[in-house]
User: What shape does this take?
Amino acid sequence: MTLYARMSTGVWPPRLEDIEPGFWESIGAAFGDAWAGNPVPRTMDAWNLRQAERSISDDYIAPLINAVKGGTYDSFLKENPFPEPVALSDQEQKQRIKDAGLEGHVTPHASYTAEALDIILEAKREELQRKEILATTPASRMPATLAAGFGASALDPINIASAFVPVISEARALKMLGAAKGSWGRAAVRAKIGAVEGAAGAALVEPLVYAGAQKMQADYDMADSLVNIAFGAALGAAMHPAVGGAKDWLQGRRGMRRAWEAAPVDAQSEELRLGFVRDMTTAYRAARPDVEEGLVRQQAEAAAALFDARARAWAYDTGRTA
Assistant: This one.
């Protein structure tokens, strides 16, 4: 980590508050801190730690490999069955933590093998280094560090999927888009929907992130969870207009009707749809009396939904009532 001292203070040696990291180190720390808190890295860290807790010592692995190479694998296992992983004692763990200079930051755990503890110590070193860089980063770089953190969150596939958790019904969303004025109005509507659905999606995956952070002994609490949910809302608010706008543009280029370009659902259209369901149910029952009642209803509902979509699109195109 490169540190720069502000020499204009006239104080030598420079004080801690006179030392700041380089610009790109601040960006890297913000990106790394946000990336480490994403669902995929948290899940992978917990998985790797779990595997390390089950690790077997090299004293057993080396002879096992030789037995495989020599073709004596079966006889070796009969004489030397797989041993249980050897966890470090509490005193051994405390000594290793002290030697690493991480007393007060990492606590021993009964399941930690040497490999598992090394993973925890390395993760904690990296976490403390990132936080030290961010703590000494000037406030003027906050927009850049926030952008870096946002970019890291947007790269996680689980975060992307969670930004589109359906909270607002499709009918309501289409009604809102149909009432919006112009592309900017539709972008604003999509941003509002995206913020709601992004926050809901982030809240759904947050238990996964929190559990992984606790497993890795990360400095992560309720405040961090709320920040993660806020990032989810921002991610949804950014992605919905981008994806929706791109889709509108492509459909316009192909001369296709947009999803929101249809007459809205009202009492009359709903009565027409339900009547179609009743008529189709009767027709299906007469044609196939051997078919299960639930399947007949599903077929009728599907046919009615297709009819309803076509009828409301026709009503939109012609300006008439279906």
